[in-house]
Amino acid sequence: MRKVMNMAAKAINKLSFKIDQLIVYPTHGVGEVTAIETEEIAGLELQLYVIKFEKEKMTLRVPVAKANSVGMRELSNEGFLKKSLKTLTGRPRVKRTMWSRRAQEYEAKINSGEILLVAEVVRDLYRSESQPEQSYSERQLYEAALERLSLEVGAIKQIEDAAAIALVLEQLNTGVASRQKKLDAAEAAADDSAVA
Questions:
Q1: Quick one: 178 and 111 in the same domain?
Q2: Least C-beta-crowded within 10 Å: which of 80, 133, 149, 155?
Q3: What pLDDT, in 10s, does the model give residues 76-98?
Q4: Which domain, by its residues, includes 49?
Q5: pLDDT tens by residue, 93-112
Q6: Domain check: are 113 and 180 in the same one?
Q7: Model-level pTM?
């Protein structure tokens, strides 16, 4: 019992997150630590982070000692943000496996809480106006990933949700335009060589 009390005392001293701090919880996205409470559960006193998720209108209580093991983390830094936005301009990497397996992989990436993996899902599932329609399940996964990514982008850049979505879509369209420009240049070169 004394060992448990000592571990609890150490946890009290090692708070990783502060009240009013924005955090990322893997399965819910960006939330705000609104309080740090102590509750007695099964005869033990536990310190809990109280996290409010505004979008989902939900409050979550996470034991301080478990916060890191469940994947709760601070917002990404500017370096990760830039890398994630650059990922959006890259070529989509779609595996030639069954949709159900790909959907599971996309879901796992979205729920990983890692901004770079979420950006990969957004990039891979994005469809420009000139591309074919998506299935309902593809659209659902794309929208979930887009929301998760834009919430963190907005929190990092301190901009509104609509502006964050616009920034993400701008990056996606930049990548599409760049790839189309290269394709047009290659076709023009092939036409020139065929004429000669």
A1: yes
A2: 133
A3: 999 999 999 999 999 988 888 89
A4: 2-74
A5: 888 889 999 999 999 999 99
A6: yes
A7: 0.82
